[in-house]
Write a structure and sequence with these properties.
Elements: H1 2-5, H2 11-24, H3 26-36, H4 43-54, H5 59-69, H6 74-80, H7 91-101, H8 111-124, H9 127-134, H10 141-144, E1 146-147, E2 150-151, H11 161-164, H12 167-175, E3 187-192, E4 197-206, E5 209-213, E6 219-223, E7 227-234, H13 247-259, E8 276-282, E9 300-303, H14 312-319, E10 324-333, E11 337-342, E12 349-352, E13 355-356, E14 361-364, E15 367-376, E16 384-385, E17 389-390
Helix pairs in contact: 2-3, 5-7, 6-7, 8-12, 8-13, 9-13
């Protein structure tokens, strides 16, 4: 296990070896975990790793002791800080990480500083830049929260948060996520009789078991007979989530959230554009069933922006050398009607349920329809439908 944890094996394999070491050789495991921490630059992976690690009895205290004896590099401490659950059991470890991270991670916000940040965000924040920050994989906002149906379901829906909550409330919710937790999104900490500690949102209980949703959105089922202790613990959202952002980036993020649901380009409730896309690079002849949106083909799900734009930058990692892509969306029509599909620029091709649409107009019966667009790779894509509702899945 020591050899695997320190080898050139895939990161997931090395993380598994380090965690397995905890049960067999705690000292070696502490060294292996320390060596892995600089590579945890994806927040969702970091959360998953820390949740597994800290479910092992006594490891939180042992890591705190190890980091006190030999401090982490400030960048490594700051990188991992948002991934450690902010609960009393890990208070010592979190305190050390904050201290060693330095900067913004060390000081908690005051009521005055929250109001000041809200004022600055309103005056100097840029919502367009803020949306780009919100979509950064490292923050994992889209993995937990949905806007207009696009995104995760771990945390509250953000579609109209800007229209329903004042800016200072949004600032406080991000800086101090445990201060005001929306009803139905409180998390619990469960200690099991076999020595594990699990944290998640309680989905349901009864029939001799409880079901949690963890920070990655995965369901965990535990038998009542396996539970030693259950404690309410506030929010799944980690504290210090944005500690690594520059001040202007924080202001931009706050400004973006404050615009969600208000009239304008960040109102997903009024947009008639798809926000959840299925994308496939076109590297040769089109498969015969592709224009029908055949689900057996290798479609890649990609979330668009709040106004429904499929960004070329989000497609690029999957497009490879392809010069064209196919992008699909599902449209639900409540009753038979003629539908107009409006494109800012003429597309290379459009099909609805496998039938070509040449002038943007098509009569559709009530039900769900698949729209497939042929588009040049390297360019953004957006279109609107004059009727119906786009669905958040392919």
């Amino acid at each position: 296990l020591v050899a695997v944890a320190g080898s050139d094996a895939p990161a997931e394999v090395k993380r598994g070896a380090a965690l397995a070491l905890v049960r067999h050789h705690r000292t070696a495991a502490l060294g292996a975990i320390r060596a892995l921490l600089p590579g945890l630059d994806d927040l969702m992976q970091a959360r998953a790793f820390w949740q597994q690690a800290l479910s092992l009895s006594g490891l939180s205290a042992d890591l705190a002791k190890a980091f006190r004896e030999q401090a982490l590099d400030p960048k490594v401490a700051a990188l991992n800080l948002p991934a450690v659950p902010d609960i009393d059991e890990h208070a010592e470890l979190l305190g050390l990480l904050r201290q060693q991270a330095g900067g913004a991670a060390m000081s908690g916000p005051t009521a005055e500083s929250i109001l000041s940040l809200a004022k600055l965000a309103a005056e100097k924040g840029d919502a367009v830049r803020g949306e780009a920050i919100y979509r950064q994989p490292g923050l994992a906002c889209t993995a937990c929260h949905a806007i207009g149906g696009a995104g995760g379901k771990v945390g509250p829906d953000m579609t109209s948060i800007g229209a329903s909550a004042p800016l200072d409330y949004l600032v406080e919710s991000i800086l101090m996520p445990g201060a005001k937790v929306k009803e139905g999104y409180h998390s619990v900490v469960i200690e099991t009789k076999d020595g594990r500690t699990l944290m998640g949102r309680l989905l349901r209980s009864g029939g001799g078991s409880v079901v949690l949703s963890d920070a990655a959105g995965q369901e965990i089922t535990l038998a009542d007979s396996a539970i030693l202790k259950r404690t309410d613990s506030g929010s799944l959202m980690p504290a210090n989530l944005i500690a690594g952002l520059k001040e202007q980036e924080q202001l931009d993020l706050f400004k973006f959230l404050s615009q969600l649901g208000k009239p304008g380009e960040f109102d997903a409730t009024k947009s008639r554009a798809p926000r959840v896309w299925a994308v496939m690079p076109l590297t040769g002849a089109m498969p015969e069933t592709v224009t029908k949106g055949d689900p057996a083909l290798p479609w890649i799900p990609i979330n668009g922006t709040v106004n429904g734009t499929l960004l070329a930058g989000d497609v690029a990692p999957f497009a490879g050398t392809a010069t064209e892509i196919l992008a699909g969306a599902r449209l639900e029509i409540p009753e038979a009607t003629e539908v107009t599909l409006k494109f800012p620029q003429p597309p290379l091709g459009v099909w609805v349920d496998g039938q070509p649409v040449t002038d943007g107009r098509v009569r559709l019966e009530a039900g769900i329809h698949k729209i497939v667009v042929r588009h040049k790779a390297g360019g953004d894509l957006r279109f609107e439908s004059s009727a119906g509702t786009f669905l958040p899945s392919w």
